[in-house]
Amino acid sequence: MASESILLSDLLQCLIECSQKAARIAQIFRDENDLFQLLVEEKSPVEKDKRVFRDFKTLADVLVQETIKKDVGQK
Q: What is the pLDDT of residues 60-73, one digit of tens each?
């Protein structure tokens, strides 16, 4: 177990804030449709979810994931 601990309320607050940031990032990308189309890439067969026929990743996905890692990691 880590030497530092975080209160459940602090973790929940952090996750709520991450969710709000993710929603803002997604909205920005949706509002810029031309840009969004340039930043979408189909995942390779190795990367894709086996449950779906086609799977895509976007810069927005990566930004959200990295933001969450950074924010939660700072807690």
A: 888 899 999 998 88
Tokens of 51: 């449950």
d(CA 8, CA 55): 34
Q: Which residue spans within the chain are E strands per DSSP? A: 40-42, 56-58
Give the global pTM.
0.66
The Cα 65–Cα 7 span in angstroms is: 22
Structural tokens at position 64: 């959200």
Report the C-alpha gap between 27 and 38 in whole angstroms: 16
Q: Exposed (0-12), middle (13-18) or buried (19+): which is 64, by Cβ within 10 Å?
A: buried
Place of tokens 């979408």: 40
Task: Enumerate residues 6+ apart whose C-beta is below 8 A from 39.
Answer: 29, 58, 59, 60
